[in-house]
Amino acid sequence: MTDPVPRFALYGEPDRGVSVGFLHVERVMTRGHLHQGQVEAHTHDQMGQITYWVSGSGRYFIEDDGLDFCAPAISFVPSRVVHGFKAAPGSDAIVLSIADGALSAVGALTPFSLAAPVFLTGQAEDPAWARLARLMAAVEESHALSAGGAQDVTAGLAVAVLGEMRQLAAGADAARPVPPLAAALRQMVERQFRSDWSVQHYAQALATTPYLLGTASKAAFGLTVKDLISARRLLEAKRLLLFTIRPLEDIAAEVGLPDPAYFSRFFRARTGEAPSVWRRRHMAHTRV
Fold it and tell me: Residue 287 has what DSSP assignment?
């Protein structure tokens, strides 16, 4: 099966490996000739992105969530998360792209969770947002000087930006760090959710016990291991329903539930709607 949405390195560039310490900063409209302010659904396989909207407005989407915004607004999107936007004329943003390897180092210096996307909006006159604006301006400036050895400065500023985002994020969930065992479980689920793996199989692969794995999953995500796997299957089903025209039978097989009738019951139990109904209702709201 092909991926439901394109994968890029930087937007518009073919997916490729990036170095462990890769950092890149540019304005959204630097690539305006490619997207004219409308960036279709895509992912980045090996990097996360912080996007700070300095001007304008538009509609952003992350996975199946459509989000209207007016600057200032900021998002963090981890690797392999579907996202895109449609921005009004005159809009622009600073985008900091950070390789997963560099994010691991950044994550060690901040309690901000780097495992889940975050989207925040605010008011420019708010002191916290004013600090964020200054930090992102410094990120842009330091990257411009990176040929002179300022890359470490950019990484340090990224830590500060994430710290400010943590303070702005509503609720503790966006800022809660994920312990190593739970993070390893999520990565394993990402690779194997289509397979018919039992909890015991996951525990063996991670050199632990089902009890310890279940405890870690519940503490970090509020979900049992089985529910975490189901949540990942549901997310993939939503991606395929929204961003492809594949029939339900193909989608069921792609998410590891090859019986279409069972897939429909699985989907309805978690969303309250049949897959076909959910697809029609959400299509108009999440397209840019």
Answer: -
